[in-house]
User: What shape does this take?
Amino acid sequence: MKWLISILILLNAIFFFSCEEDEITHEPPVTEIDELKDSACYIVQVLDYQYAPGQYATNTALTNSEYFVGKPHYLYTVYPDNPKSAVSLGGFGGYIIGKFNHTIPNLEGNDLIVFCGNSPAAEPGIVSVMEDTNGNGLPDDTWYELSGSAHNHSETYTQYQITYYKPALNENITWKDNKGNSDTLRVGFGSTTSYAWWPDNTKDSLLFTGTRLPDAYYNNSTGTTESWVVYPNRFNYGYAENNAAGDYNETKKGNEFDIANARDSVGNPVTLSGIRFIKIHTAVLQQAGWLNEISTEVYGAADLRMLNE
Assistant: This one.
């Protein structure tokens, strides 16, 4: 009988130490939370970026598309040694496409935020979104624009196309659109000509397509000194880099967007269950004197609900 008791004690000890070892082996590792690490709620990858002709074409900071990825530097409590700048999209049509690592669901209220920092300007960019219907992780399905307050404005043009032409040395960039208009990009401040605004010396022309919004600024000066101000009540909601709008989040320094405002290519509402990709393009074709071209600048984007959590 003693031998049976001894065997039971031994088996119990083996079982106890086996379980204890198993618990130690499978215990999840402790993850250190670093405030400066980017969260998955932000853009995780830039899939495409094209700067349209504009005054920042040679600015290596403002044309670094990787600055669109992750957390904007101004939301850090402790600033990095080399804080990220905004990413400029250049003149009309310039765009950036970013990817989230998850589907942002279309729920009640605002779903997205696009950061514009402390920009004192309103240089509206249109935000488009895309599902990942085929599940391949690429933005090769259908883009849907998120409509804003100028959606039905008489000077808003859908399916607008513009072609910019590379100038000769120290000459101005010229352009033509699909409505029979043509003009020259003229510098209002800085260089003598817009030659340095050309962003891609490997191409003689650049074509951009997208919805064009009405002019953002007008000169309200009656004298010789220009005073450019934003048209009141023109961009009340629905655009990136629009800090005078009702959808601007003062704390997070960005504009909020509702996926429920998605529209198809002819302006009809569509119902999306969620989105995986985001595209932003400069939506104003205007040269406002010493302000030069109106160009959208952004710091990134995020899943608003994850960010709030």
Confidence is low (pLDDT under 50) at residues 1-37.
